[in-house]
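Intended use. Records like the one below are meant for learning the mapping from a protein sequence to its folded structure. Do not use them to infer anything beyond what is encoded.
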Amino acid sequence: MKKLKGNLIYPLMIMGFVLIFSNSCKKDSNNNNPASAGTVTDLDGNVYHTVTIGTQVWMVENLKTTKYNDGTAIPLVTDGTAWSTLSTPAYCWYNNDDATYKNTYGALYNWFTVNNGKLCPTGWHVPTDAEWGTLITYLGDTTLAGGKLKEAGTVHWASPNTGANNSTGFTALPGGSRYNNGLFYLNGKYGWWWSSTESSSSDAWHQYMQYNTSLIYRTAGSKIIGFSVRCIKG
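Structure written out for the chain above:
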């Protein structure tokens, strides 16, 4: 009888260790891979996936809403001269071509639209300059962050898309810009994203990434310029 019990105990112990090790591996695997934190929908019905990076939850796609979260319409401005003189909110699509650019790259918003405080869905907001800084610090530094945030490959980014591995799941895309002269620039090569933080009466802080480096850059630009927007939860 004693021999029989011994023969049963050892296989059971081995099976227990295997189950514990298997569950541990599953947990580690989940922690090492970008995991979707869910979805959020704007008032136009656009659905955005979300991802948790450190302590922050970000949208995975660029914003494309045409309404504030209170239902008010954001003015669509297509004329370049009119855009260049704006001191009020406006949005547009790159090259005024929503059929080509909307679904992939989202809209371009001037900073006056950002400053309204109601651009993102309820419970979300345009990140401050400090919140962008928190993201970059979590990823190491400015020399590494761009590669970890950019979508990998050259389907949307121009070659060589240096350093891009999208290890965060952020999937940054090069939406280009509408400059303060009303002209469109560099879709496919550069992505610019507004912060909600002013740097002066005429400028505000933003971040940008480009196709030929893994760096992310922080600089200030005219509030008239049209840039992409990513929303952060909170």
